[in-house]
Design a protein that fits this description.
heterotrimer; A mainly alpha; B mainly alpha; C mainly alpha; B: mainly alpha; two-stranded antiparallel sheet; 2 strands; 68% helix; 2% strand; globular; C: mainly alpha; Methane Monooxygenase Hydroxylase, Chain G, domain 1; 3 helices
Chain lengths: 166, 332, 118
Amino acid sequence: MQVLFFYLVAFVAVASGLLVVTCKSPVNSALALVNTFFCLAIFYVMLHAPFMAAIQIMVYAGAIMVLILFVIMLLNLGVETMKKTTHTVWGIVAGSLVMMLTFFFIKRGQPANISGPITNEVVESVGHTQLIGKHIFVDFLLPFEITSILLLVAIVGAVILAKKEV
Amino acid sequence: MMPDWIITAILVAIKLGFVLALLLTGAAYLVLAERKLLGRMQLRYGPNRVGPFGLMQPLADAVKLLMKEDFIPAQGDKVLFFIAPGIAAVTALITFAVIPFGPPLRLFGREMPLVVCDLNIGLLYFLGLSSLAVYGIALGGWASNSKYALLGSIRALAQLISYELSMGLSIVPVVLMARSFSLTEIVNAQTHIPFALLNPPAFLVFLISVLAESKRTPFDIPEAENEIVAGFHTEYSGMRFGMFFVGEYINVIILSSMVTVLFLGGWHGPLLPGIVWFFGKVMLIAFLFIWTRGTLPRFRYDQLMHFGWKVLVPIALLNVVVTGAILLLLQG
Amino acid sequence: MLDSYLPIIVLIGIAVGFAICTTIFSRLIGQKKPTEVKLAPYECGMPPVGSARERMSMKFYIIAMLFIVFDIEAVFLYPWAVMFKKLGLFGFVEMGVFIAILLVGYIYVWKKGALEWE
């Protein structure tokens, strides 16, 4: 049952991933990408990481895709104004490189038996959010504070980029 | 003896059926209640022809919407035009799953929590779905290929994300006080005193953000009828319009329930059974929604954005820090 | 893990089914008399002027970018709020610094006038 459901979601994820690159209209591609993110969130839930799933939806589907949608709507790249761009050769080269890399890692890694102190049972008993919280706020204190500086830079960058045009 | 999982499945099915029936009839009668109340506020009767006191009006409306012609505007994006109202209705329908609407019941000798699915990340589930609900509106307006619809959906997008921010920030003090994302645990943390009294600023910010999230007066700029006709659903007709409409009213019920759960103590209250208290509070908040619509004029767009970004966000952020400091002092 | 989410999956299925069925049903029983004027975009009775796909103001773009940044901040606040009691004063100071740095950004945005709508 679990496995069947996994393959169903995986199929939808891959199918909408393909739609992202094949759709003519950029808005359709964006919607397909949102769907892919939604499927990834389901995978996170199946991997006992509900907090990550919620964040995936909130940040990627809810914030970043909204920005992309805004850009598409604001620029209004209609189907008719788009130039036909074809990078077939480069596409094949890049695609096969990525495929080779993926197969390399699949062969190297052993996803069946990942060892470590944090098992599914630990996650169940402590709580996924609490585990993440402990790691962010205790073990990775400095990276966390640096994140805020990164976000600050992002704010300044956004304002400067946008202000140039106005 | 029946196997355990069959009983569980039956209970879940009963709860699902109850919740769906409740949401759909609730939304239908909320429309009627709004029309009646607005009528009274404007010294009119409101609908009173179909059935006794106009009580069959929702049914008549549904039949009318089903019989209407359902057309797609020329040059519109057919696929998106089809999907958009569906997104609006589906995201609204599935949000109620995590909202606990009563204290646990004892049935067949086992505890049955009155919530479809008590997730331990219930609050984040709600926030995630409300950020997905944006797409129904945005895509609906874009797919229509109409200027008014596009304007409406872009206004709606900017408004919804701005107020989502203050809504998300005003929830943080609740999590601080309840120390959990589970809505059941948040309700149980308010057994003695509701969070609305403990933390009025968070309550007010949340209430205002929720009003803006529901896109109703005074925040109904996305569908301001005397500027941009009907905003994002200008080109929609028949049942697709109906789906946007039902989605909006289900959303009102859900947002009222969230206010009740997060700040008004959910089902807790003296004397009466919990489920009565819960729906009483929800109706009170829903009445507040209708009342503001009958009373307040519409914001201007710059006022709306200023209010969201320059008033609500700083208050909510400050409130997080202050609540944290007070909790720290209380802990000693 | 998935078991506790089963009701939601069923609910999503029912909701999607409801949306599709009502649309198809209304398409089946509704009338269909499309005319060219009826299918034209509505512009208060006037013949439509120009394309509907106009370019929009840059303002909305800034709002979306700022939303992402502050949304990520809010996302960091949630696990912190759940962990608050365990982290104690240490966690409070830590988050204070985090919020203070972002507050600098907020004031910058305000002073630069990116939140103004003329």
